[in-house]
Amino acid sequence: MVLHRLTLLPQGVDILLPSGSPLTDIEYETPERYIPFGCRSGACGACIVEVLEGLDVLGEAGDEELDFLEDLGRADGKHRLACQCRLLGPATVRVD
User: 2Fe-2S ferredoxin-type domain: from which residue to which, for each copy (predicted)?
Assistant: First the structure.
Protein backbone atom coordinates (compact mmCIF):
# COMPACT_ATOMS: atom_id res chain seq x y z
CA MET A 1 0.00 0.00 0.00
CA VAL A 2 1.35 3.41 -0.99
CA LEU A 3 0.96 6.17 1.62
CA HIS A 4 1.09 9.92 0.98
CA ARG A 5 1.66 12.76 3.43
CA LEU A 6 -1.10 15.29 3.99
CA THR A 7 -0.01 18.38 5.94
CA LEU A 8 -2.78 20.36 7.61
CA LEU A 9 -2.37 24.01 8.52
CA PRO A 10 -2.72 25.95 10.75
CA GLN A 11 -2.51 22.86 12.98
CA GLY A 12 0.88 21.84 11.58
CA VAL A 13 -0.13 18.17 11.55
CA ASP A 14 1.21 15.55 9.11
CA ILE A 15 -0.98 12.52 8.43
CA LEU A 16 -0.26 9.56 6.14
CA LEU A 17 -3.16 8.36 4.01
CA PRO A 18 -3.39 5.52 1.49
CA SER A 19 -3.14 6.61 -2.13
CA GLY A 20 -6.53 7.58 -3.53
CA SER A 21 -8.10 8.37 -0.15
CA PRO A 22 -10.47 11.32 0.24
CA LEU A 23 -8.90 13.91 2.52
CA THR A 24 -11.75 13.45 4.98
CA ASP A 25 -10.44 9.92 5.67
CA ILE A 26 -8.08 11.48 8.21
CA GLU A 27 -10.85 10.76 10.71
CA TYR A 28 -9.72 7.11 10.60
CA GLU A 29 -6.10 8.03 11.34
CA THR A 30 -6.53 10.39 14.30
CA PRO A 31 -9.15 11.03 16.99
CA GLU A 32 -9.00 14.76 16.20
CA ARG A 33 -11.43 16.21 13.68
CA TYR A 34 -9.03 18.47 11.80
CA ILE A 35 -11.22 18.84 8.71
CA PRO A 36 -14.89 19.47 9.47
CA PHE A 37 -17.36 17.70 7.22
CA GLY A 38 -21.01 16.93 7.09
CA CYS A 39 -22.31 15.30 3.95
CA ARG A 40 -19.21 13.72 2.29
CA SER A 41 -20.88 14.29 -1.07
CA GLY A 42 -19.77 17.83 -1.89
CA ALA A 43 -23.09 19.43 -1.06
CA CYS A 44 -22.57 21.17 2.29
CA GLY A 45 -19.25 23.05 1.91
CA ALA A 46 -18.13 22.30 5.48
CA CYS A 47 -14.87 20.67 4.33
CA ILE A 48 -13.53 23.47 2.12
CA VAL A 49 -9.74 23.74 2.18
CA GLU A 50 -7.18 26.03 0.56
CA VAL A 51 -4.57 23.99 -1.27
CA LEU A 52 -1.11 25.43 -0.59
CA GLU A 53 0.92 22.63 -2.20
CA GLY A 54 -0.04 19.65 -4.32
CA LEU A 55 -3.10 20.86 -6.20
CA ASP A 56 -2.10 18.55 -9.05
CA VAL A 57 -2.11 15.44 -6.80
CA LEU A 58 -5.68 15.84 -5.51
CA GLY A 59 -7.47 14.64 -8.62
CA GLU A 60 -9.53 16.74 -11.00
CA ALA A 61 -12.37 18.82 -9.61
CA GLY A 62 -15.65 17.85 -11.23
CA ASP A 63 -18.12 20.32 -12.72
CA GLU A 64 -20.45 20.09 -9.70
CA GLU A 65 -17.61 20.82 -7.28
CA LEU A 66 -16.43 23.76 -9.38
CA ASP A 67 -19.97 25.16 -9.59
CA PHE A 68 -20.41 24.81 -5.83
CA LEU A 69 -17.06 26.48 -5.13
CA GLU A 70 -18.18 29.35 -7.37
CA ASP A 71 -21.43 29.62 -5.38
CA LEU A 72 -19.31 29.82 -2.21
CA GLY A 73 -17.11 32.55 -3.69
CA ARG A 74 -14.08 30.25 -3.72
CA ALA A 75 -13.61 29.69 -7.46
CA ASP A 76 -10.05 31.02 -7.35
CA GLY A 77 -8.43 27.70 -8.29
CA LYS A 78 -6.85 27.31 -4.83
CA HIS A 79 -9.82 25.93 -2.91
CA ARG A 80 -11.29 22.43 -2.98
CA LEU A 81 -13.83 20.37 -1.09
CA ALA A 82 -11.78 17.88 0.93
CA CYS A 83 -14.40 15.17 0.53
CA GLN A 84 -14.05 15.38 -3.26
CA CYS A 85 -10.22 15.29 -3.36
CA ARG A 86 -8.32 12.01 -3.74
CA LEU A 87 -4.79 12.12 -2.35
CA LEU A 88 -2.38 10.87 -5.03
CA GLY A 89 0.83 12.47 -3.68
CA PRO A 90 2.04 14.76 -0.89
CA ALA A 91 -0.08 17.86 -0.32
CA THR A 92 -0.44 20.76 2.11
CA VAL A 93 -3.82 22.33 2.81
CA ARG A 94 -5.10 25.09 5.06
CA VAL A 95 -8.40 24.33 6.73
CA ASP A 96 -10.75 27.33 6.43
Answer: 4-96
User: Is-contact 45 37, C-beta < 8 A?
Assistant: no
CA 86/CA 20 separation, integer angstroms: 5
For the chain, list the domains and their CATH numbers: 3-95 (3.10.20.30)
Question: 3-class SS at 26?
Answer: helix
CA distance linking residue 88 with residue 62, whole number of Å: 16
Q: What are phi and psi of 35, to 5 degrees?
A: -115, 115
Cα angle 70, 65, 42; round to 5: 115
pLDDT digits (tens, 9 = 90+) for 38-63: 777 777 888 999 999 999 999 999 99
